[in-house]
Automatic annotation (TrEMBL):
It comes from freshwater metagenome. Transmembrane segments: none annotated. SUPFAM superfamilies: Class I glutamine amidotransferase-like (SSF52317). GO terms for biological process: pyridoxal phosphate biosynthetic process; pyridoxine metabolic process. InterPro entries: Class_I_gatase-like (IPR029062), PdxT/SNO (IPR002161). One of its GO terms (cellular component) is cytosol. Keywords: Glutamine amidotransferase. GO terms for molecular function: glutaminase activity. This is Unannotated protein.
Length: 88
């Protein structure tokens, strides 16, 4: 996959969409039943592919949220994932 930037809808983050920077990043090929897809992109054939996923207290993205200056993905991680660990 080539490097590119695009706007994404990210489940759990309110509008506007987040800017996503992809640096030769692959998407998620498949997910299990216990994996929640938080964001996806659509390829040139119209097929949707996950690019942000969550499983319990784990969060993975195919893009680099730290490169945009928008901290909402990091805030989501702290509020949704880290706080869950504290609640135990």
């Amino acid at each position: 996959m080539d490097s590119f930037e695009t706007d994404l809808k990210f489940k759990g983050i309110t509008e506007p969409s987040i800017k996503a920077v992809f640096i030769r990043a692959p998407w998620v090929e498949s997910t299990g039943a216990d994996v929640e897809v938080l964001a996806q992109i659509t390829d040139e054939k119209g097929v949707a592919h996950p690019v942000a996923v969550r499983q319990a207290n784990l969060l993975a993205t195919s893009f680099h949220p730290e490169l945009t200056g928008d901290n909402r993905v990091h805030k989501y991680f702290v509020e949704q994932i880290c706080s869950e660990l504290v609640r135990g």
